[in-house]
Design brief:
670 residues; mainly beta; six-stranded antiparallel sheet; 47 strands; elongated; disordered C terminus; transmembrane
Length: 670
């Protein structure tokens, strides 16, 4: 039972401590002003003067009230005395939670007060105690004791700025400081866009004073305040802030001018595009009402043309020759210095256009981001132009430095479609613009489509996609092309200027996954993906291996055939075998030998279109040493003759005979 009680007590103590820890101290600025007529005495207690009769407390011998004090509730206490009003004002920071309370002052000193209303004079000294009392709980709190010397806390009255006169570079300020004259005053001022104040030195002053502030910027807004002081005491509170604007002046600088020549190859027309930067406020020195533009061929000054415009870009037709161009800005006072350029329209520009451009929306504004290829010509800044598609006459411009590759476009309307162009600028040259359409709901009005594989090899993969004009479902901050492999991951940003990519130095016979991710403010999503495997061998490598092998085999085959033919011709000549010949078998037939008869082939039934040559040689032995000359057999259409030639002359003769089939027989004659 005792354990339960102990646990309950600990829980209660813990909750109480947490409640104390959760008490939040409130801070409030309190101020109370007391005049002479509000002071009253405490009867027999001559050492006290109070603002409420309830504060006549018991005092010690030194006149200090004997009360419990809580100085931690009264912080940063300060008081000042106004001579003109003969009043005492104190200000402090209250740190308790009492919302409804009454505040009173208790004045005390060691000597008796003769007359309480007369203690608020220049030469008085006393001790001050501040009392606060809650209306609901009647809880009283007393501050620490503050010794007060009126002479040291005298504050001059707050001055009043009565009139202000301006020029284009100065302000004449006039102010009053009340009935009691002051001895010195000072003025502080600042420009509208500045955070710091500029103060003048102490100025001799009287009841009404004036001072001229010089060296100011024309057509600029300034804030003015005045403070004054007596011979002794404190400076007065600053006067109420006065806002004033200096008048216009002539523009002090010429516009920054750039150009490029746009040529049409089909029509062979040339256009000169001029764009310039709006003057800064410090250089404009007024409201710029427009620009004066003039251009003329140097060889034909009579063709000079001049016109006025309120835009920051103009396009004029030119020919392939030298021109002189001049631009100036003007306000209600006059014209700025002229910016003049001499250019040759036949020469092409050297500043390349942007490499890529993209736009996305954050719900309240459009953000433009781009990439620029670094070349010999370093871009000094980028000029951004945007206009609604329904109101292209009113364009807005923004300039950023050459090291900046993103910009926020202000003043975008929700239901408007915009055309955004970015010009790279290098001194007096600029490149052609890169443009894109966008709106506040969708961002860039482009969508990625038709993601496909183009080519694959053992060490590379090529992919391709297209861009189409569309209103995407979400505003895409950017697209990223990601290749995931077993050993590596590659990522690159995809812009509308890029429609394909080749991944190099991949591993052969390896599977890869390729994705296109869209990045939004809410997260990422996959737009398209595909899986691909690299080849083990490339087609070119296969050809490089197969062609030499085939050539080697061909050479070896040719060499073998030639070698075999030559060897057989010279070393193994062909010898005719009569057994494979029909005529030979007929001549070698043993049944026809020994009787000296003449055998004749029956050729009368042979009617074949093809012909062949038969050589017949018959050798008759006349003696042992003498060969018989060959017989000459002549076949013709009508007859066959055999002649014996005894003379050893001539070669054998040949006759054309039909091809003999194997079924042909023969007859024996004689």
């Amino acid at each position: 039972m005792s354990c339960r009680r102990s646990v309950c007590v600990l829980i209660c103590v813990f909750c109480f401590c947490c409640a104390l820890g959760n008490v939040k101290h409130t801070f409030s600025i309190q101020e109370l002003t007391v005049s002479q007529k509000e002071l009253m005495d405490c009867g027999k207690q001559k050492k006290l003067c109070v603002t409420s009769s309830d504060d006549c407390l018991y005092t010690a011998s030194d006149g200090v009230p004997q009360v419990p004090r809580t100085p931690e509730y009264f912080l940063n206490t300060s008081c000042h005395y106004l001579i003109q009003e003969e009043s005492l004002t104190c200000r402090w920071t209250q740190t308790n939670n009492i919302k409804s309370q009454t505040i009173s002052f208790i004045f005390s000193r060691a000597k008796d007060f003769n007359h309480c209303p007369s203690i608020l004079t220049i030469y008085s000294t006393f001790n001050l105690t501040i009392k606060s009392k809650s209306i609901f709980s009647q809880k009283e709190q007393f501050s620490d004791i503050y010794p007060v010397i009126i002479r040291d806390i005298i504050q001059a009255p707050q001055p009043l700025i009565s009139s202000v006169d301006v020029t284009d570079s100065s302000i004449n300020v006039t102010w009053t400081s009340g009935e009691n004259p002051v001895t010195k005053c000072k003025i502080r001022y600042k420009c509208l866009n500045s955070e710091s104040w500029t103060e003048t030195a102490d100025l001799p002053s009287s009841v009404e004073s004036q001072f001229v502030i010089e060296g100011l910027q024309a057509f600029s807004v300034y804030h003015l305040r005045v403070s004054c002081s007596h011979r002794f005491g404190r400076w007065s509170d600053w006067s109420n802030e006065t806002r004033v604007k200096t008048s216009e002046s002539l523009p002090s600088a010429a516009p920054s001018l750039s150009y490029y020549v746009d040529s049409d190859e089909n029509s062979r027309n040339q256009q000169l595009v001029l764009l310039w930067k709006a003057l800064d406020v410090t250089d404009a020195q007024g409201l710029i009402q427009g620009y004066e533009v003039s251009y003329m061929p140097i060889k034909q000054p009579s063709l000079k043309k001049t016109f006025h415009t309120t835009h920051l870009k103009v396009i004029v037709p030119v020919r392939s020759e030298e021109y002189e161009v001049s631009v100036c800005a003007y306000n209600s006072v006059g014209c700025s210095p002229h910016r003049r350029l001499t250019l040759d329209a036949s020469r092409t520009h050297d500043v390349p256009a942007l490499k890529s451009l993209w736009v996305y929306s954050d719900g309240a504004s459009l953000w433009v981001c781009w990439e620029h290829e670094f070349t010999v010509v370093n871009v000094s800044e980028f000029a951004i132009e945007w206009s609604g598609t329904t109101d292209r006459e009113h364009s807005r411009w923004e300039r950023v430095t050459g090291s900046t590759f993103t910009a926020r476009l202000p003043g975008i309307e929700a239901q408007q479609k915009y055309k955004i162009s970015v010009f790279p600028v290098y001194e007096s040259l600029c490149g052609p613009p890169a443009s894109i359409f966008a709106d506040l709901q969708h961002g860039a009005l482009l969508d990625l489509d038709r993601f496909r594989l183009v080519n694959v090899s053992r060490s590379s993969v090529a992919v391709q996609w297209t861009w189409r004009e569309a209103e995407p479902s979400v505003s895409v901050r950017q697209y990223r092309l990601v290749l995931n492999g077993p050993l590596e991951t590659r990522t690159l940003t995809v812009f509308p200027n890029k429609q394909q990519h080749l991944f190099l130095q991949l591993h052969p016979n390896t599977r890869y996954s390729i994705h296109i991710h869209g990045e939004t403010t809410a997260g990422n999503f996959s737009k398209a993906s595909l899986d691909v495997s690299t080849l083990l061998l490339d087609y070119d490598e296969m050809l490089r291996f197969a062609i030499p092998v085939l050539l080697l085999l061909l050479v070896f085959g040719v060499f073998s055939v030639l070698t075999r033919t030559i060897c057989r011709e010279y070393f193994f000549p062909f010898v005719a075998n009569p057994r494979y010949s029909l005529i030979g078998r007929w001549l070698l037939d043993p049944h026809l030998q020994g009787n000296g008869s003449i055998c004749t082939l029956k050729l009368d039934r042979v009617f074949l279109p093809e012909k062949s040559v038969i050589q017949l040689e018959r050798r008759v032995s006349l003696s042992d040493h003498e060969d018989v000359l060959p017989l000459k057999i002549c076949a013709s259409a009508g007859r066959t003759a055999v002649e014996d030639a005894l003379a050893p002359s001539g070669l054998p003769e040949y006759v054309d005979l039909p091809l003999l089939p194997e079924s042909l027989g023969y007859v024996q004659t004689g």
